[in-house]
Amino acid sequence: MAGLQLKNLHKAFGALTVIPSVDLQIEHGEFVVFVGPSGCGKSTLLRLIAGLEQATSGEILIDDANVIDVAAADRGVAMVFQSYALYPHMTVRENLSFGLENIRMAKGEITERVNKAADLLQIGELLDRRPKQLSGGQRQRVAIGRAITRDPKIFLFDEPLSNLDAELRVAMRVEITRLHQRIQNTMIYVTHDQIEAMTMADKIVVLRKGVVEQVGAPLDLYNNPRNLFVAGFIGSPRMNFLEGTIGQGAFQAPGTPDLPLPAGLAVSDGAKVTLGVRPEDLLPVSDGQGWPLRVSVLEQHGSNSYIHCALPSGGEMMLHQPGQSQAREGDILHVRPRADHWHLFGADGLRISA
User: Is 205 in the same domain as 273?
Assistant: First the structure.
């Protein structure tokens, strides 16, 4: 295991700055997930840690040693790619052992490491097959096995499940989580998938345009987003937003009843704000007591229903209801945010707190 620290890490490609400045601490044995929209710099950051890209400036500390000028092969990290990157003409056994043979490791040690990785990932029966004879999930296990044989200090995963179908993705994310529980190595995982981030991570790092917007445990980010971006990005389906103003100690928006503010909330009358509330936190109330929403689309998922609605002002809202809903297009539903389960964001985008 190893800890990782990034200090004022900066990356530019010519005049284009991709990572302005990142400071980040990752502890021994943590499973950390980098998330953010396409082009936010998460894969570039991973490649900087791996040594596949050269940082413009800053420090990358692994076990307190700065590796900014150390070759990728000597950093003690192993990377698992989205494309698997297996040698098609080699068997699984040869793919697992190839990197170890290149560093002239003893044959007995290579055999032991290959067998250990195969047992850990349950791919022992695949050792004599070639990649074209494997399914996508089996190829990904082999790619992970190749990383394991190197016995790295830190595992790096670059969207490793994005090429798999939905059912297999679920199975593989459970397998990777179990793998982390067994070997307890530090793992850094890049994904754009909300479910992967929320279910796998000890810590999530949310990135936007190369800047770290917030770092924290999954439920901390879900329940206490620092700003509008994090609130809208973390969670699937996304948080609902409604623009309004503060008046007489309440949130006010056209066509909706006033929503009294909690005591001690630091916001003044007349301030322009955005209210955020998650779909599961909009509860049905009696007619005239809440927001009147007109149903436009109903998505039935069997065990859950997601109801797309429109406010009188034209804004859109989504409701989540457990089970199967009887709502129909054109129905008017009256809802109100669950007490203490909504957020206010100021004009600067930051969450307003007491």
Answer: no
